[in-house]
Every structure is written in C-alpha cells, then in structure tokens.
Predict the 3D structure of the following.
Amino acid sequence: MAKKEEFKEFVKKHPRLLKPVQNGETTWQKLYEIYDIYGEEGEAWNDYLKPKNEDRASNTEKAAVGAATGFGLAELVNVFKNLDLDSLQNGIGNIQRVLGVIQDFGRKDNTTDTKKTEYKPRPIYKHFED
C-alpha cells in the first residue's frame, strides 16, 4: 500500500502525467507499472514529463485565440469533431415531439367548448318521424 501512496504523491508533483491519460495515450495502470519498475528518477519518465514542442505551440495558440473568449478555437473544433450527428438529430426530433404534445394540450378544442343542447324527452304519442 505504501508504494501506491508514493505513486499518488509523485503524480501530484507532476501534473503533466494527467494529459496522456486524458488523451487515451496511456492508462494509470501502465504509469504505475513504470513507477514500480523504474522509480521516480528513471529515464522512462522523459516522454511524459518533458514538455513537447507541440505542447508549447498549442499553449501559445490557445492563449492567443482564447484570451478574450476563454474558449479556444481548438476546443471548439474538437467539440464539433466529436459530435455525433445522428444522436443530435434524434434528440432534436424528440424535443419537437414533446413540444408538439405540449402545444396540443395548450390549444382550445372547439368541439369541447360548444354548448350542449338540453335533453328533451320525446312525447309519448309521437312515433319515429311522425
């Protein structure tokens, strides 16, 4: 158990390890195994802990584009790239059906508002169509 706690502290010291896990490049299990085999000072961490040139470029691009908005162009492109159009269309269709039902309840139906004529019993001496 102590090794696991040490690994947690190591990850807290090096938050750069979160990015490869979030991107799906690696898993926590693999990182823990590297930690268990090589320790904190092993050369195996060079790929994960040293900043890459593309990270620096993307950070400066995000800062330039998203400075005023707080939401960068890269994030916006990723949102549209990961969007499932079929599920979006199904969701919009469901919303339209629900709104249609709500509108039907809100409409006044002319047949229910008409006044009913009072019932008048047929005279006893009168036959059908007489």
